[in-house]
Amino acid sequence: MKIHEYADYDEYVAIQTLTNKAKESWTYASARIIDKISADKGLDAKAILCHGTRSAGEQKFFRLNYPNAYIMGTEISDTATKYPMTIQHDFMEPLDEFVGRFNIIYSNSFDHSIRPLETLQVWMAQLIKGGTLYLEYAEAQSIGNDADPLDATAKEIEDMITGGGFKITGKLTEGVKHHGVIFKCENQ
């Protein structure tokens, strides 16, 4: 596993913001994947959090399956304030109001983390007991450059998850972009 090195945290934020703005109209998440996650988890989730959501695509897809749930997304770029159900926030940093709150957490942006184990710990702490993290990861998209700083194989991500003390309770692969995998981790 390799992580691109920045001069400092401010450079990381600046590059992530520029990358976000260059891809602002593009949604990586698909309704089909969100439907699979919804079917896997069941339709009684009360609170859903999506990390690194660019223009709120994930939240909009989840809203179709969970019309009465509290749904929120985080985005590091200042563009976040333009989109519904989105706050500007670095997903690697904890927020007190998110701790122990969510039934579902979803992200396809893990390759943007410069502190992957810490990020995973923050996300798992945001789940209620019995809540589920759905971490979509495509090894082909993780290239270790300034825009996508994490360069790791899917096996390295799996080993990091289990080595960090978390349990993978399933994997979704059908229809995942770039032959990726969605690691399913339950908060026990």
Would you give an account of this structure?
- The model has no long low-confidence stretch (mean pLDDT 95).
- The protein is globular.
- By secondary structure, the protein is of the alpha/beta class.
- The protein is built from five helices and nine strands, in the order βααβαβββαββαββ.
- A hairpin with an 8-residue loop joins strand 8 and strand 9.
- The chain has a seven-stranded mixed beta sheet, sandwiched between helices. It has a two-stranded antiparallel sheet with strand order 1-7.
DSSP helix count? 5
The strand order across the widest sheet is 4-3-2-5-6-9-8
Mean pLDDT: 95
- Stretches where pLDDT is under 50 for at least 5 consecutive residues are none
Q: Compute the gyration radius: what is it?
A: 15 Å
Q: Tally the beta strands.
A: 9
Helix content: 25-40%
> Which band does the percent of strand residues land in?
15-25%
How far do the termini sit from each other?
Answer: 27 Å
Largest sheet: 7 strands, mixed
Shape: globular
The string of secondary-structure elements, in order, is EHHEHEEEHEEHEE
- Overall SS class: alpha/beta
